[in-house]
């Protein structure tokens, strides 16, 4: 649950040095048929972000540590800060963002969303402690716009609010769900060369239009997915995430042996398998830790047999989302 903090900054100014330390988790976008409107926050991966502000001349400093993610104006955080300053007419302060990357970039695990969410939340906490969720989501999405070319909010919403989120693209409302019987999630991340600007490309290859039959089937799958979430029925949820007629047919071509790995996981007990966001990570919904470890080992061995390096993780949904862990002023 997000808290709005207690810093007050009249006239958009800070009078002294302020520092907030934030953690922001990774996420899985789409969750199968929920393209651009559903996201799931996950444990195991998180960015740790320091947002600092002090009286100054409007300088924005961005420092990034880990995974060779660039600092300065080549980092999405720079554009999140600039968008915030412009929209809310914040003047007379210098801002420094220090991001310690824990969510691997170009993985499909919401790396850019985690950074954008954490930076946006820090800025709102310091400068606008009373804010609407829609405002927060809009600013966080500016980072995704820089990375992908167009804003999308499934990853940033999941990172911000935790659990499973449903975004209304018409008015930016966010609906939040928690699973009372949270599953285990196996994440398989094959190593692929040439993933620079992967998210942008993975969006460009999607169809601009779909036919009526595809729309009906996709709507049915999405409805089934929401039913599984609301009723905490992992069997229904697994069947729903296992199919997607918008992104999966196109993005699967970018992932080596995707369909073979999916078939292996389902044959050995996975409830559902699909692409995590834009890929190349694959996520698998399973019942418990024992099943997760078994399936993870089988899939890992398969990729090794094909001489493809792979990382395999077992995680669970993160119910908290972005949160302040320290006020370091």
The CATH class of the largest domain: Alpha Beta
Low-pLDDT stretches are 1-11
Radius of gyration: 20 Å
Largest sheet: 7 strands, mixed
The tally of beta strands, per DSSP, is 11
| SSE arrangement, N to C | EEEHEHHHEEEHHHHHEEHEE
Distance from N terminus to C terminus (CA atoms, Å) equals 23 Å
Structural class by SSE content? alpha+beta
Query: In DSSP terms, counting alpha (H) and pi (I) runs of 4 or more, how many helices?
Result: 10
Proportion in helices: 25-40%
Shape: globular
What's the layout of helices and strands?
Elements: E1 18-29, E2 38-55, E3 60-65, H1 76-87, E4 93-100, H2 111-127, H3 133-148, H4 154-161, E5 164-167, E6 174-177, E7 184-190, H5 198-204, H6 212-231, H7 234-241, H8 248-251, H9 258-267, E8 272-275, E9 282-286, H10 289-305, E10 310-315, E11 323-327
Describe this structure in words.
The chain contains ten helices and eleven strands. It has 329 residues and is an alpha+beta fold. It folds into two domains: 178 residues, Ribosomal Protein S5, domain 2, CATH 3.30.230.10; 132 residues, Alpha-Beta Plaits. Strands 1, 2, 3, 4, 5, 6 and 11 form a seven-stranded mixed beta sheet that branches. It has a four-stranded antiparallel beta sheet with strand order 8-9-7-10, sandwiched between helices. Helix 1 packs parallel to helix 2 and helix 2 crosses helix 3. The chain is globular.
Short description:
Helices cover 36% and strands 24% of the residues. It has 329 residues and is an alpha+beta fold.
Characteristic terms for this protein:
single chain; Ribosomal Protein S5, domain 2; four-stranded antiparallel β-sheet; 10 helices; 11 strands; about 25% strand; globular
